[in-house]
Amino acid sequence: MLLLAALACSAAVPALAQTSPKETYVQAGRLLDRPGQTPRGASTLILRDGKVVEVRDGFVAPETGATLVDLRDKFVLPGLIDLHVHLFSEGDPVKERMSALTEDEADEFVIGIEDARRDLEAGFTTVRDLGSNPRAIRALRDAVERGAIAGPRIVNAGRMISVSGGHGDGTNGLAEAFADTVAHRQINTCDGADDCRRAVRQQIGLGAQVIKFAATGGVLSNVAGGLGKQMSDEEMKAVVETAHAFGRRVAVHAHAAEGVRGAVEAGADSIEHGSFLDDATIAAMKAHGTWLVPTMIAPVTALANARAGKLPPATIPKAEAAAAAAAASHARAIKAGVKVAFGTDTGVSRHGENAREFALLVRAGLTPAGAIRAATLDAADALGRKDQLGSLEPGKAADLIAVSGDPLQDVTVLEHVDTVVRAGVVHKLGGKRQVFPQD
Q: Which residue among 28, 166, 291, 406 has its CA within the 20 to 30 Å range from the CA of 67?
């Protein structure tokens, strides 16, 4: 009887109306849907389920129930990609040094939420985080993807693989009691090929989607080790082979030419910084198709901080050397035709200021169109996600930004983004933050 009653009740309830997926119509005054090609005039993008489903000429009126985003007086282009950020670093070295003993991972996570929002609202809808607490960055990545936190799509590396005493060794410069504590928990340092394979596997086990290792010394590590090669060829090869076996691409922190060359010969996918590039190293990068991620704003910022006394004394000569050489090296690489993808090392500089890199790239020899492509299609290619990101074509992610003015004429207009849409969700409109999550 109960079953019959339930069936009778269910029959009395009308069937739920079949609703079509929510659509958004974006009307664009000008549209650079495929960076590297000529922009379109008045256009309409139709977005559904976080993807672009259609691009039409002219201003198309939205169908009933669809949302309209009116950007008829704006220049619209794909969401930007920054291949080198540190979301748990604020770009304030004095504050970070003073709070190192009073803040823990929970505090870092809150900083990461704030920094992710800043990068997103600056127009960067995808970032590659190349050095953070692996558990925390994995949690932040997943929270953004499920819509709990507003931020860019995150491709995470976890901790940077480093030899003992190298750029990624967290014990550098610490007093004994603190160094012992850090060493006890540290798993990203390795010595010898087999140990480096272990270090890579452990970062992957913690959720790393890309592997980063330090081939050379670094400016900001608190050790007077210079910027020369630190990891052996055998260690580099072991890192790259292990990462590739797990389907992970490899980004390499490298300043000195010898370290860059060793990483390139080992099969690394991208070189981060590349401050001292000679002709032989540039030729090797071209031969192997290795990406250069110049992070041009980083040495400028590091040098300013070092001269202002905001960094430890051991970093000052390294900052001076890197800043003096980097611009010329990058200009030489660009002129030679090395593949360049956009990255800033934001976290050294402040989050939300990532687009300042564009003017430096143009000064080094890229055209504005080339600099934009470096932060869209080329960056997507370097990530291995060119089929998903980097242009506004049907089937790709509905990631877009809008600016006033023409960035193909003046690339600095990208420093003032008016509108940001990521995966079809409007996060910024008319220069104002939108309520998030949205219904």
A: 406
The token duo for 93 is 């070295």
Q: Is 226 left (phi over 0), alpha (psi -120 to 50) or beta?
A: left
The residues pairing with 55 across neighbouring beta strands, listed in sequence order, are 45
What is the C-alpha separation between 60 and 46, in angstroms, rounded? 9
Q: What is the CA radius of gyration of the chain?
A: 23
Half-sphere exposure of 154 (CA within 13 A, CB side): 35
Provide the token pair at 385.
């996600």
Which amino acid is present at 416? H
pLDDT in tens, 115-153: 999 999 999 999 999 999 999 999 999 999 999 999 999
Has this prediction a pTM greater than 0.85?
yes
- Segment 329-361, tens digit of pLDDT: 999 999 999 999 999 999 999 999 999 999 999
Nearest alpha carbon to residue 366 among 396, 398, 342, 385: 342
CB contact at 8 A, 80 and 375: yes
What domains can be seen in the chain, in order of their start residue?
A: 24-78+392-433 (2.30.40.10), 80-383 (3.20.20.140)
User: What is the CB-side half-sphere exposure of residue 82 using CA atoms within 13 A?
Assistant: 33
What would the two tokens of residue 157 be?
């590396």
What is the biggest distance separating any 2 CA atoms in the chain, rounded to whole angstroms? 87
Residue with tokens 């920054």: 82
152 within 8 A of 102, measured Cβ to Cβ: no
- Give the whole-angstrom CA distance, residue 372 versus residue 358: 8
